[in-house]
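W.,

You were right to be curious about this one. When I first looked at the sequence I had no strong expectations either way, so I just let the prediction run and decided to look at it fresh. Below is the sequence, 128 residues in total, followed by the output.
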Amino acid sequence: MQGSSLTAGYANVVAVCDVDLDSQSSQGTISLVPKAKQFRDWRVMFDQMAGDMTPYSSYSRLCTFPVAMAAMELGKGVYVEKPMCRTFLEAELMARMAERNPKIATQVGNQDIRVRIIPVQKHGKRQE
């Protein structure tokens, strides 16, 4: 989540989760939301925190899929940033989970508009 969104009051951030809470990036976020509880494990956070939305952003697409699926299973809406998963199968499973739970909000976003997007077909072949 970008700092300006946090300080503008667009979200009520109640928790921050990062395996490396001591990193400069995490400390920057924590300084913007000092009252938010801090967690190193998202499973512990889900067990201990109530809430209806899980914005999720990760530098690694390796973590997004299990966190988003667990959140949706708990009835929490999710906002993930690209890349949202590693494979087309994971994308299909996430879409099916969202379809089975139409009352939860789901969204995929990209906050870095400088990234050049190359269109691909479903099977990963580049479109010309």
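Here's what jumped out at me. The longest helix spans residues 61-73. And, maybe more interesting for your project: The chain is about 35% helix and 15% strand.

Coffee later to discuss?

I.
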